[in-house]
Design brief:
There is one protein chain. The protein has 122 residues and is an all-alpha fold. Among the domains are: 25-56; 89-121. It contains 5 helices and no strands. Helix 2 packs across helix 5. The N and C termini lie far apart (57 Å).
């Protein structure tokens, strides 16, 4: 008798949890999911393109570009050389070596979060 009462209350408890869990299910429209995924992909793929356009390609800084002007200003400010770890040095390094896996993950996550925030309004 005790075992059947325990089993009955356990089944009732499981049924309540299942009912609550099914009531909390969030169904996202396919368009919103696609927006979030596209936001992540665009964020990851846009950075190398922007670096190239600015003048930080894999081959080195392009002459007469924004990168060349930035490098010139940084060299003048530092007495003739670009300081290691400066913005110009970091962008040049990213342009030459590409993005690391962790950087891609962070950019993708940030792009997805921004796209999700924008998608909430549509």
């Amino acid at each position: 008798m005790v075992a059947s009462a325990f089993t009955s209350s356990a089944v009732t408890g499981v049924a309540k949890v299942a009912r609550v869990a099914s009531g909390c299910a969030v169904v996202l429209p396919l368009a919103r999911i696609a927006t979030v995924v596209i936001g992540g992909v665009v964020a990851v793929e846009a950075v190398p393109m922007v670096l190239g356009v600015m003048g930080f390609p894999a081959t080195g800084i392009t002459s007469s570009s924004i990168a060349a002007k930035m490098m010139s200003a940084a060299a003048i400010a530092n007495g003739g050389g670009v300081a290691p770890g400066s913005l110009v040095a970091t962008l040049q390094s990213l342009g030459a070596t590409g993005l690391s896996g962790l950087t891609r993950f962070i950019l993708g996550s940030t792009g997805s979060a921004i796209a999700a925030g924008i998608a909430r309004f549509y």
